[in-house]
Amino acid sequence: MTTKYSLRTPLSVGILAVTAAFGLAGCVPTGGGGGGEESPAAQTEQAQEETSEPTQAETEESTPSEEASEESSPSEEPSEDSSDDSSPSGDKTVSSGSEDGDSSASGSEIDTTELEGEPIETVEGKGGDTVEVPEHDGPIVVVLENTSDSEYSYLYGTADHGAVLSGVDSGRTSVNFVDPYDPYDQTNTKSFEMEGESDETFTMSFYEVDAIPTAGPGDTITGDGFGVVHWDGDEDVTVKASHEGEGNFIVHGEDTEEGGGGTQYTFNEIGAGYGYLDIDTGEYYIVVEADGEWTFEPSSPEEADADSASPSA
Fold first, then answer.
1. How sure is the predictor about 312, in pLDDT bands with cuts at 50, 70 and 90?
2. What dihedral do alpha carbons 26, 31, 37, 42 form, nearest 10°?
3. Are 291 and 247 in contact (CB under 8 A)?
4. What CATH number does the domain located at 108-113+212-309 have?
5. Residues of the chain with CATH 2.60.120.380
């Protein structure tokens, strides 16, 4: 039978004290699952049964979900220099909203591989280099692209405070949400020491959080690998979340203003599959860590309940 469970934790957004209820229901594998390769930067946290690969710097002190520990996999396809995929700096006009909280075809399709506007700064370097992070107060978006000529290479970053910037294989890109608001121990990353061979190269771009695409009720959200979306919803909704990768699929909510409750985990699964996510009225950054294509599409509590009650394939 299809499993059904929920994680409902308040997520206060500044003085608004908005509550985010993220629920996971009907988590159904759709293909041969299995964790991706572990990197030299593995930074894991113990949960109940599964083990994860390194996650983003900002999730260092967060609590893992019910079934698996944090991990991350190589993420999005090349962005700025690739002809195959969208660039993080590409312009994207985003609209959101529908008049009802169930499935709707009236929304827009939001591509999280496309960030809005131009980066604050872009740095090119090689393994062993130290990259200075632009001065910032609060969260910042860091796009890391592995531009190495070698077919097999792996680069990741170690922050000055010890946390890890998730790594990428040759030709891959990750969109990282760094220094999220935290009520207990707010980080402010000053630099990254890039871990890799001296002949392995990278491009790192820094963006303001305003570059993150915005979505809301009725919208379909897509991504490939790591991604982040600014959710702004005026009603409670249910979305169906699908993952096509073989490694980890981790989803967590982050506050949009200082003084909130910190990171709140929802999905922490391994392999291809799908499930349902309940999102309460409010405003959040929703961060996805994955090693393949993923989609959030409008659904309804009724669809989630019916799916959970049906025998799995």
1. low
2. 0
3. yes
4. 2.60.120.380
5. 108-113+212-309
Residue 34 has pLDDT above 80, yes or no: no
Residues 56, 110: Cα–Cα separation, whole Å: 22
Q: Report phi then psi at 52, rounded to 5.
A: -120, 165
DSSP string across the chain: --EE---------GGG-------EEEEEE-S-----PPPTT------SSB------GGGTTPPP-SSB-------PPP-TT-SSS--TT---------SSSS--SSS-EEETT---S--SEEEEEETT-EEEPPP-SS-EEEEEEE--SSSS-EEEEEETTS-EEEEEETT-EEEEEES---SS------EEEEES-TT-EEEEEEE-GGGS-EE-TT-EEEEESSEEEEEEESS-EEEEEEE--SSEEEEEEE-SSTTS---EEEEEEESSEEEEEEE-SEEEEEEEEESSEEEEEE--HHHHHHHHHSPP-
The verdict on pTM exceeding 0.70 is no
Statement: residue 37 has pLDDT above 60: no
The overall longest dimension of the chain from CA atoms, in Å, is 54
Is residue 33 a contact partner of residue 272, using CB atoms and an 8 Å limit?
Answer: yes
Fold of 121-210: Jelly Rolls (2.60.120)
pLDDT (0 to 100) of residue 183 = 86
Which of 62-76, 110-124, 163-177, 230-244 bottoms out in mean pLDDT, i.e. has the lowest? 62-76
